[in-house]
Amino acid sequence: MAFFAVLLAALAVQQVYGASTPRRRATCAGGQQVTNAECCAWFPVLEDIVPNLFGGECGDDAHGALRLTFHDAIGFSRTGGGGGGADGSIIVFNDTELTYLANAGLDDTIDAEAPFIAKHNVTPGDFIQFAGAVSLTLCPGAPRTGFFMGRAPPEAPAPGPDGLVPEPFDNVTNILNRMFDAGAFSPEEVVALLASHSVAGADTIDPTIPGTPFDSSPSIMDTQIFIEVQLKGTLFPGPDPGNGEAMSAVAGEMRLESDGLIARDERTSCFWQEMAGNQSRMQEQFAAAFLKLGMIGHSESSLIDCSDVIPDATPLPDNAGPHLPPTLDQADIQQACATAAFPTFPVLPGPAETVPAIPQS
Ligand code: HEM
């Protein structure tokens, strides 16, 4: 009896102070100090992927890694639709999950990441979230986010066919409902997560123009996405609009219909507007929502906090202030928030710009 009591007490302590309890600080083989010795395993991964997966830049591979964090994690339903959340199923069961329309284009990212997962013998669920957090540190202006390890290998693909990953042609109600069902995200958190579209573009919406960016500065994580999507749409960047594409305001730039609607919906427009030009608020809100994304299907207490492996963030360059694109002005902003005016920004001088495509890797 006494033996069992001691055993139960020990187990209870283990549960309360689960895997994320800070242990004694450890020094890794490379001399880095970490809170949990298990985290040392991630330094070789970091040193490998920054040059060899991302080429040290906030380019196509970094963008793809960020998108993959979302598409892996969101395949989960709190109301019984199944899925393992951020569990790496999109890689392990890619035969199934890549047949879902919403995952179009992710085969390149999966092909690029898979050899690193095998080489470093980490779980795919952990790797996807780690690579996403590291990719952000290469994008000037992005916040430094946390990273937790300990996701078991996936047991099954996220259930299909299609439906768990939001599509750009979904209406706002469906997107907000889906995000709430998957991760209890509030409308504000959904807006915050869309800061990711500041370092993003589309390859598959209009396949004739791969790498078409969503804002004019896809290699820095600024708040231009929140400004430029609020401008009156006047053009499509390609010959024919794709499914889920709305008119954008700047040549060479694509606007997702979903981004355009979320910027104008009464549930989200005021928060969207608050992000415009407010870099530090965007960073804080995005970092918190992004950490929550990687926790879908898990809890902090079941994982180990390895945030100390993530390098420092890269600050925005000095000349990257919020602005309106050349030749446009405040009158081109489509005011949507009913309770406050959209902030004013200087207009960049010069002729109308055509944003170049993101070089494809
Ligand atoms: C909530 C609704 C969302 C919708 C409807 C949506 C939709 C899309 C679409 C259609 C693309 C273009 C895919 C292509 O044609 O190549 C895209 C790209 C991207 N999305 Fe989202 N997205 C959403 C949320 C998110 C979130 C939460 C994240 C990350 C946290 C994210 C990160 C990205 C990134 C980084 C790209 C660019 C990928 C690249 O350039 O290779 N998105 N998104």
TrEMBL record:
The keyword Metal-binding applies. GO terms for cellular component: extracellular region. Its main location: secreted. Residues 122-341 form the Plant heme peroxidase family profile domain. The record marks R67 as: Transition state stabilizer. The active site is at H71. Heme b binds at H197. Its cofactor is heme b; Ca(2+). Residues 1-18 form the signal peptide. One of its GO terms (biological process) is cellular response to oxidative stress. Coiled coil: none annotated. Ca(2+) 1 binds at D72, G85, D87, S89. Its EC number is 1.11.1.-. Ca(2+) 2 binds at S198, D215, D222. Keywords: Calcium, Disulfide bond, Glycoprotein, Heme, Hydrogen peroxide, Iron, Metal-binding, Oxidoreductase, Peroxidase, Secreted, Signal. Binds 1 heme b (iron(II)-protoporphyrin IX) group per subunit. Binds 2 calcium ions per subunit. It is found in: Secreted. InterPro entries: Ccp1-like (IPR044831), Haem_peroxidase (IPR002016), Haem_peroxidase_sf (IPR010255), Ligninase (IPR001621), Ligninase_C (IPR024589), Peroxidases_AS (IPR019794), Peroxidases_heam-ligand_BS (IPR019793). Disulfide bonds join C28-C40, C39-C306, C58-C139, C270-C337. It is an enzyme of class 1 (oxidoreductase). GO terms for molecular function: heme binding; metal ion binding; peroxidase activity. Belongs to the peroxidase family. Ligninase subfamily. This is Peroxidase.
